[in-house]
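This entry is listed as follows:

___
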Amino acid sequence: MRFLVDAHLPPGLCAMLARHGHDALHTRDLPAKNATRDRVINQVSLDDQRVVISKDTDFFYSHVLQGRPWKLVLVKTGNISTRDLCALFERNMPAIENALQNHTLVEIDRAAVTPVL
């Protein structure tokens, strides 16, 4: 799978995704870096079929209403350390991968991975 990790999530998440065999970019890798606008992130997601990983609920609403981004993993953990967030994704990667096979919107919190759409 191809992922695009939003600015307010740690770049270390990309390294963890790569260890699982995925192609992962962070917004800091884009031309405007972490100042990249949501509309640009959505377009990159559509053009490259990248799953956006974000805490930003604006992506939730644009996905539900406009089908943008292409696919979304919405992180609903509240404040969490980089180490704990990466460990959470590490533990739940099989469930995330499985959910994204059949769904376009997946939520992850400290307790579960939940397919939404």
